[in-house]
Amino acid sequence: MGILAIMVLNKAGGLIYQRDFNEGLKKLSSNDYLVLAGTFHGVHAITSRVSPVPGSGGLEIMESEHFRMQCFQTLTGTKFLIFAQPHQPNIDVIVKRVYELYADYVMKNPFYQIEMPIRCEAFDRNLLAYIQPRQ
Amino acid sequence: MQRQDPLQSPFVPFSPNPSLQQGTPTATAPLKHSLTASQSSNLRYSSSRKSIYDRHLNRTQRSELSKSSFAFLFGEMVQYAQKRVSGIQDLEKKSATPSFVPTHVSPAGPRHLKSLSEAIHSLTPRRLNLHGYTIGQRLLELLLWRDGRSAKRETRILGILQFITTTLYRSIFNKPADALEKSRDNEDEYMLIDNDPMVSSYISIPKEMSQLNCAAFVAGIIEAVLDGCLFPSRVTAHSVPTEQFPGKTVFLIKFDESVLEREAVL
């Protein structure tokens, strides 16, 4: 499977976690990542409003020639963005597992301050251990 | 949940008699209050009017606890241990008491610490240790009681360490400890090794607090059990991360001289 990158956005649209899993990705400056996250947050809010279907949850999947992006929004408003290769199967399962890891290793860590950037070594380690063998 | 007025509260099993406690004297609540209070169900008294103290002690012997809820509770305990110091004065008052001096963390003592935050961090393991200590005292009693007639009073160092690595560890973590080693340098030191302590499996220590190991809580439990069996000692938790086990923890058990003297006689 080809997972390219994972991002986590807090409910205000701030980028709290970003990690690349593919060597070939173009590196952006940390400021650019923040802008990207903020822009996506805005677009997501707009799509949920302009949707013709009432009660829409907003943008979920975006597909392009080179990648496919899946967004998963939790009930609390935290967003998980997964960038994968175009025909990657079972992204739902991966998203769910990443959410689970987040709930375990970030939310149960007494040293993590909510809504702040994630700096949890155990989360990094377990995320990598989950993604790497599936690449 | 409504907090009860102390005058309204019924007699709580295992709590000391209020008339024996220091501080402002309170009138002992008349018995009829306990009848009215037990009508409604709360944490202490269920609707069947039986408190957890009325249950048989073996009832929870094999029952399991949710690891998630424990992780959240323990997280709060760690935060509580860190937050309790409100200022430098409070800290000094606490560290003036000999039992609070974290000699095992900073040999120079708290006075030589560079900043308040550093001082707080150095006190945290001691506090967690104290939390664990109170649990260990009760746990030892319970374990020996559950052993029934086969309960035995351990007199040798190896015997008590064996009890900790198997019986105690199995009863709290449902697995024995991973290794038990004797220190090569010091006669009075033993090392109990846990490759992945359950209490800190979800915890990542920030880099600036790398000395801290939240398994100090477990160290407190071990210390209480050793003290309770008349093996006065000091137990500290140290992180020894390896490639395979990033959370590997060594509990360093340092026995009091009196223990070694007695061991030599036996």
Describe the overall structure.
The complex is a heterodimer of chains A (135) and B (266). By secondary structure, chain A is an alpha+beta fold. Chain A is built from 3 helices and 5 strands. In chain A, α2 packs antiparallel against α3. Chain A starts with a strand and ends with a helix. The relative contact order of chain A is 0.19. Chain B has 266 residues and is α+β, with helices and mostly antiparallel strands. Chain B is 39% helix and 9% strand. In chain B, a hairpin with a 6-residue loop joins β1 and β2. The longest helix of chain B is centred in the middle third of the chain and has 32 residues. At the A-B interface, α3 of A face α2 of B. Chain B: Part of the multisubunit TRAPP (transport protein particle) complex. Chain B: Its main location: endoplasmic reticulum. Chain B: It is found in: Endoplasmic reticulum; Golgi apparatus, cis-Golgi network. Chain B: This is Trafficking protein particle complex subunit.
Describe, in short, the structure shown:
With 135 residues, chain A is of the alpha+beta class.
Cα-atom Rg of chain A, whole angstroms? 15 Å
Q: Write down the secondary-structure element order of chain A.
A: EEHEEEHH
Helix-residue proportion of chain B: 25-40%
Mean pLDDT of chain B: 76
Mean pLDDT of chain A, nearest integer?
91
Structural class of chain B: alpha+beta
Order of SSEs of chain B, N→C? HHHHHEEHEEH
Broad shape of chain A: globular
Largest sheet of chain A, order of strands side by side?
Answer: 2-1-5-4-3
Given as residue ranges, the uncertain stretches of chain A (5+ residues, pLDDT < 50) are: none
Largest sheet of chain A: 5 strands, antiparallel
Number of helices of chain A: 3
Beta-strand content of chain A: 15-25%
If interface size is counted as residues with C-beta under 8 Å from the partner's C-beta, which chains form the largest one? A-B, 13 and 18 residues
What is the straight-line distance between the termini of chain A? Answer: 5 Å
What kind of oligomer do you see?
Answer: heterodimer
Count of discrete alpha- or pi-helical segments spanning 4 or more residues of chain B: 7
Subunit structure (chain B): Part of the multisubunit TRAPP (transport protein particle) complex.
InterPro entries (chain B): NO_sig/Golgi_transp_ligand-bd (IPR024096), TRAPP-I_su5 (IPR016696), TRAPP_component (IPR007194)
Subcellular location (chain B): Endoplasmic reticulum; Golgi apparatus, cis-Golgi network
Family (chain B): Belongs to the TRAPP small subunits family. BET3 subfamily.
